[in-house]
From TrEMBL:
Pfam families: tRNA_SAD (PF07973). This is Threonyl/alanyl tRNA synthetase SAD domain-containing protein. Its cofactor is Zn(2+). The keyword Cytoplasm does not apply. Keywords: Metal-binding, Zinc. GO terms for biological process: tRNA aminoacylation.
Length: 215
């Protein structure tokens, strides 16, 4: 099992211990560390990229709790420095938190999230209706999201005794989540709700973050 440093801290730099580095058929190297600051692809969120020593990290995946880093060159075993691409992490964290925010808002209207995809250029959350689901449109959803963003609700992370991680904002119910997030919803002031589509009794919300915004 690889210790997930990104569960405990948003730090983009870490001193790491490389325990395995093996070449692959495509010319890259598979690298495993005792603990990692790199988020692996999954849970609707793309992986972190960056560097371990001088080697560039081109992909990160997880298999049964073991996180594998694919790097451009061989890295010696032992202590080294890891650096996560901060801009990529910021974009993915904002999109993931924005998906949670949209979920919180629509749950108040009795729509319940069933799957999410927090990828740049294709971010969306899919909902199923409850017995008393209320009508909603782009304008209404945008206003409700903006209202919560202005309330400066902080991110709350809890890791239960069974190892299950939960993430929530303010007093909203937390979602089970292993991804990275913003520290406060005010960081989502660039959120734009693009469209709502209803099909086969499901509601899909498409959204994006304005990449031009500054914190």
């Amino acid at each position: 099992m690889t210790k997930k440093l990104y569960w405990e801290s948003d730090a983009l730099f870490a001193q790491v211990e490389v325990m395995r580095c093996q070449d692959t058929e495509d010319g890259r190297y598979e690298l495993q560390m005792i603990a990692t600051p790199f988020y692996p692809q999954g849970g609707g969120q793309p992986c972190d990229l960056g560097w371990i020593g001088d080697a560039e990290v081109s992909h990160v995946s997880e298999d049964q709790g073991v996180i594998i880093h694919y790097v451009s060159s061989e890295v010696p075993l032992g202590t080294n420095n890891a650096r996560v691409d901060g801009e990529r992490r910021r974009v993915h964290s904002e999109l993931h938190s924005a998906g949670h925010l949209i979920g919180h808002v629509l749950e108040q209207l009795d729509w319940h999230p069933i799957k999410a995809h927090h990828w740049p250029g294709d971010a969306r959350v899919v909902f199923k209706p409850g017995e008393n689901s209320q009508p909603v449109d782009v304008g209404k959803l945008q206003l409700l999201c903006n209202s919560l963003i202005s309330q400066n609700l902080s991110c709350k992370v809890k890791i239960r005794e069974d190892g299950y991680r939960e993430v929530g904002f303010g007093d909203f119910s937390a979602y089970g989540c292993g991804g990275t997030h913003v520290k406060n919803l005010v960081e989502l002031h660039g959120l734009k709700v693009l469209s709502l589509q209803k099909k086969k009794n499901q509601l899909t919300v498409h959204y994006e973050m304005d990449v031009k915004h500054t914190d």
